[in-house]
């Protein structure tokens, strides 16, 4: 069969525009409507008679194929194979080995006729490559990728099959990280590779679950397990209470020992992942370095599971993790030096704002702030304001808006817990006028303050209260240790059973859950239980278990399942700190500025706060920011 005949069959059957056929080791022949365009783009000599094929030197084939993918051409590449069919001669076959139409892959032609699909037992073709633009998203077929996203997706496809284990996608607000991530997930499914989707917080995990349709988990739940052997437990209740009161007790979580199951890990909101040692407390995780522990557990470092890959996705201009100056999971030099990698992680940066975001005043101002960070300009900054999308406001107006808005639609962002507490108090007095606002109400908005694995509630998760029981007050006396022996302290612990619903799924009861909460933080400006309250939780548990006469091992098990000591610590969530807001987004946000913007950290804070809003944003206490007149 002639090359021109082969080309015509493929072009007609699969609506292709370019067919590349291997003639011999030195030359490939190109046919199709776009062959002339390809020649011009690659600076290849055109044939004198344009009805003839375009000859491509073998040295150009790799460049040619990359070009076909990057420019979204519909194409097929056929390679020459010879198979001994136990006849008097070797029969030549041309096989479709790479194509933008996966239906055409493996189709075989000989010098006589089309033989049909290439037999699987003889299949020696390369792994099929489905062109990124051919991927479909069932939930939103209107989404299309821009040229930059297509190029990065093609590079990700190559990364999936090379020997580099770490890759990073970095992109500022509005450049389409989530859109691209949907396609990456589809691509991994097409490649038939197992995937684990992770996020640093429960809220971020639910957001990306909703957007991709793939269940995401928190990093902590993926890599850590309680180390029961490290729990210091005494059979004597008095000795145990003394240990609690002296703070000689902690729960330590170690890395899971079992091998990871996924081939590809994707971590969204990677700017939140820290790698510096924190102080030891009641709950300790691994080495204290989350990035190190993640890479260790999945086998990228130390255990060296070379079949595992990890892709970090995030915005390097956001606030870095606590105690960090930058986001280590998005820093290729940090990872290379710290973990002694043999190869630099592959780095892809999204720089082009997506077409549907170009007119967003929020994103235009985010870009101004980002440029201020990039150029290391401290001090004065001017932003673009109007009366609708990005505007000055005052605290009272924003509090009214928040108290009247639908639960999932609006948030107020502050820099300090003290201000968040004050705003929450004012907002709730408006929202629940005439009710007892010293206690939570149905439809109240709450945020989880610390992880509770028993109830599957994680730091930063925001819920609406659907039902609630009466408050239960448990009084504990601290009196056994030297600290309290001569001056006993009485602690009141406030518990309640409530039915909660995540705000990401506010219209559905599918994810409702019944939990026990401790309310001591609800009306407090602090961001954690005080020392006496924390000790009191443990002493209360000790008081109840001593009545059951449990062994040490039984106590350890009970500690993990007891509803009181594992009660979810909550605060109100109408106003939250910027750190707590990371990983979430709201249609409308009010941002309260505290003092002037002077340092890079101030601008990172403002950038992070501003980019939490998707539709409108109001700035409070920001009259000193001048308007850039269009």
From TrEMBL:
Q: Which GO terms describe its biological process?
A: DNA recombination
The protein in question is named: UvrD-like helicase C-terminal domain-containing protein
- Give the Gene Ontology MF terms in alphabetical order: ATP binding; single-stranded DNA helicase activity
Query: Which GO CC terms are listed, alphabetically?
Result: exodeoxyribonuclease V complex
Q: Which PANTHER family match?
A: DNA HELICASE B, DNA2/NAM7 HELICASE FAMILY MEMBER
Q: Which Pfam families match?
A: AAA_30, UvrD_C_2
Residue ranges annotated for the AAA+ ATPase domain, each copy included? 163-504
Q: Which InterPro entries match?
A: AAA+_ATPase, Coronavir_polyprotein_1ab, P-loop_NTPase, UvrD-like_helicase_C
Keyword Nucleus assigned to the entry: answer is: no
In its keyword annotation, does this UniProt entry include Protein transport? no
Keyword terms, alphabetized: ATP-binding, Helicase, Hydrolase, Nucleotide-binding
């Amino acid at each position: 069969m002639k090359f021109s005949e082969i080309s015509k069959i493929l072009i007609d059957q699969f609506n292709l525009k370019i067919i590349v056929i291997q003639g011999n080791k030195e030359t490939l022949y190109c046919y199709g409507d776009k062959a002339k365009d390809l020649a011009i783009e690659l600076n290849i000599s055109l044939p004198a008679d344009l009805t003839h094929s375009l000859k491509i030197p073998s040295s150009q084939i790799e460049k040619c194929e990359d070009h076909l993918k990057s420019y979204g051409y519909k194409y097929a590449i056929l390679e020459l194979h010879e198979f001994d069919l136990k006849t008097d001669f070797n029969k030549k076959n041309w096989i479709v080995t790479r194509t933008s139409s996966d239906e055409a892959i493996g189709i075989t032609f000989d010098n006589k006729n089309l033989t049909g699909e290439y037999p699987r037992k003889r299949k020696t073709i390369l792994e099929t490559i489905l062109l990124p633009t051919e991927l479909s998203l069932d939930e939103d077929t209107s989404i299309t990728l821009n040229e930059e996203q297509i190029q990065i997706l093609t590079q990700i496809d190559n990364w999936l099959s090379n020997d580099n284990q770490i890759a990073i996608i970095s992109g500022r607000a509005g450049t389409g990280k989530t859109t691209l991530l949907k396609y990456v997930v589809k691509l991994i499914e097409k490649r038939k590779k197992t995937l684990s989707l992770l996020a640093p917080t429960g809220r971020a995990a639910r957001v990306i679950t909703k957007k991709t349709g793939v269940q995401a988990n928190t990093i902590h739940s993926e890599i850590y397990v309680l180390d029961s052997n490290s729990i210091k437990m005494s059979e004597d209740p008095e000795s145990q209470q003394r240990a609690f009161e002296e703070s000689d007790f902690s729960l330590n979580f170690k890395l899971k020992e079992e091998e990871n199951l996924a081939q590809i890990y994707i971590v969204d909101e990677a700017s939140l992942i820290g790698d510096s040692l924190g102080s030891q407390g009641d709950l300790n995780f691994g080495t204290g370095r989350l990035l190190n522990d993640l890479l260790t557990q999945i086998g990228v470092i130390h255990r060296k599971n070379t079949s595992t890959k990890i892709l970090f996705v995030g915005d390097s201009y956001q606030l870095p993790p606590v105690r960090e100056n930058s986001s280590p999971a998005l820093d290729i030099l940090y990872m290379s030096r710290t973990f002694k990698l043999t190869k630099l992680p592959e780095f892809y940066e999204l720089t082009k704002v997506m077409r549907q975001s170009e007119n967003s005043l929020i994103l235009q101002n985010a870009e101004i702030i980002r440029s201020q960070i990039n150029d290391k300009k401290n001090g004065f900054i001017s932003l673009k304001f109007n009366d609708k999308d990005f505007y000055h406001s005052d605290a009272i107006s924003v509090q009214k808006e928040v108290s009247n808005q639908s639960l999932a639609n609006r948030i107020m962002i502050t820099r300090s817990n003290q201000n968040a507490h004050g705003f929450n108090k004012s907002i709730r007095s408006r929202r629940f006028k005439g009710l007892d606002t010293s206690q939570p109400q149905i439809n109240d908005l709450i945020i989880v303050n610390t992880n509770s694995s028993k109830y599957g509630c994680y730091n930063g998760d925001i819920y609406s209260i659907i039902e609630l029981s009466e408050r239960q007050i448990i009084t504990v006396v601290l009196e056994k240790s030297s600290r309290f022996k001569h001056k006993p302290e009485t602690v009141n612990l406030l518990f309640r059973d409530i039915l909660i619903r995540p705000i990401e799924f506010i219209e559905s009861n599918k994810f409702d859950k019944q939990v026990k909460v401790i309310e001591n933080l609800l009306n407090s400006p602090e961001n954690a239980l005080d020392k006496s309250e924390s000790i009191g939780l443990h002493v209360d548990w000790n008081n109840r278990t001593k009545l059951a006469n449990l062994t040490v091992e039984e106590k350890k098990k009970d500690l993990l399942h007891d509803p009181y000591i594992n009660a979810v610590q909550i605060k109100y969530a109408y106003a939250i700190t910027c750190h707590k807001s990371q990983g979430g987004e709201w249609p409308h946000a009010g941002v309260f500025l505290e003092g002037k913007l002077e340092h890079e950290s101030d601008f990172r804070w403002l950038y992070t706060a501003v980019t939490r809003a998707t539709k409108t944003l109001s700035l409070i206490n920001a009259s000193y920011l001048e308007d850039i007149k269009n």
